[in-house]
């Protein structure tokens, strides 16, 4: 179902996810049931239906906690954090993102840890707390380089570029934006490449 969300075919995604959920309930597969609730929450979040998104994400969270699936629990906390960022409820977003981060560190999930640092960096960027945004984005970037996640490395470099623009440190901003641009060209992300060119205009 999630691939249909990415393709923008939300009705089809909902249909498949609801069919999957019905089967999972029938056969008692609690783990996959929780995952389907999470995916439905992401779907409704993408549609801007935050009440429904929260309802499904909270159902997913309850199941993941019940069955002791720590990685799944962290993933749901991360998705709830993202939703509260979109709603502008930054205190609530921070609580959920910090819970996600704590679990990712505890279970040694470097990919998830990097993602949590990145989301917290974006949260602090939206709050105009540039020192805190820089701290978290640099932590995210270090992990993304370590694990070889080029796509997220480019995103963190781009976000750090924006942080340094706001701090008035244009040489540093240009350095990070050019790193991001090089990766975007390498991985063939034309849309991302265009965004970086726009940001680079600000530091010329």
Number of helices: 11
Radius of gyration: 18 Å
Cα distance spanning the termini: 44 Å
Low-confidence stretches: 3-7
Q: What structural category do the secondary elements indicate? A: mainly alpha
Give the overall silhouette. elongated
One letter per element, helices H and strands E, the order comes to HHHHHHHHHHH
The overall pLDDT average reads 94
Strand tally: 0
Task: Give the percentage of residues in beta strands.
Answer: under 5%
The largest β sheet comes out as:
none
Helix content: over 70%
What multimeric state do the chains show?
single chain
Write the layout of secondary structure elements.
Layout: H1 2-6, H2 10-27, H3 30-46, H4 50-67, H5 70-86, H6 90-107, H7 110-126, H8 130-147, H9 150-166, H10 170-187, H11 190-201
Helix pairs in contact: 2-3, 3-4, 3-5, 4-5, 5-6, 5-7, 6-7, 7-8, 7-9, 8-9, 9-10, 10-11
Overview of the structural elements:
This protein is mainly alpha-helical. It is built from eleven helices and no strands. It has helices spanning 2-6, 10-27, 30-46, 50-67, 70-86, 90-107, 110-126, 130-147, 150-166, 170-187, 190-201. Helix 4 (50-67) packs antiparallel against helix 5 and helix 5 (70-86) runs parallel beside helix 7. It is elongated, with a radius of gyration of 18 Å. 43% of the residues are buried.
């Amino acid at each position: 179902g999630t691939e249909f969300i990415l393709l923008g075919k939300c009705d089809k995604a909902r249909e498949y996810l609801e069919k999957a959920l019905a089967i999972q309930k029938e056969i008692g597969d609690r783990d996959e049931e929780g995952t389907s609730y999470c995916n439905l929450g992401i779907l409704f979040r993408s549609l801007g239906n935050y009440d429904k998104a929260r309802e499904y994400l909270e159902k997913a969270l309850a199941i993941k906690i019940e069955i002791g699936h720590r990685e799944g629990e962290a993933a749901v906390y991360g998705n709830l954090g993202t939703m509260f960022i979109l709603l502008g409820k930054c205190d609530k977003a921070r609580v959920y993102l910090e819970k996600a981060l704590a679990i990712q560190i505890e279970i040694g999930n470097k990919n998830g840890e990097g993602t949590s640092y990145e989301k917290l960096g974006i949260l602090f960027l939206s709050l105009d707390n540039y020192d805190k945004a820089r701290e978290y984005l640099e932590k995210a970037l270090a992990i993304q380089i370590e694990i070889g996640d080029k796509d997220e490395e480019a995103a963190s470099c781009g976000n750090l570029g924006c942080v340094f623009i706001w701090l008035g440190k244009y040489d540093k901003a240009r350095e990070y934006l050019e790193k991001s641009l090089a990766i975007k060209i390498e991985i063939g992300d034309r849309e991302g490449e265009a965004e970086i060119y726009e940001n680079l205009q600000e530091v010329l």
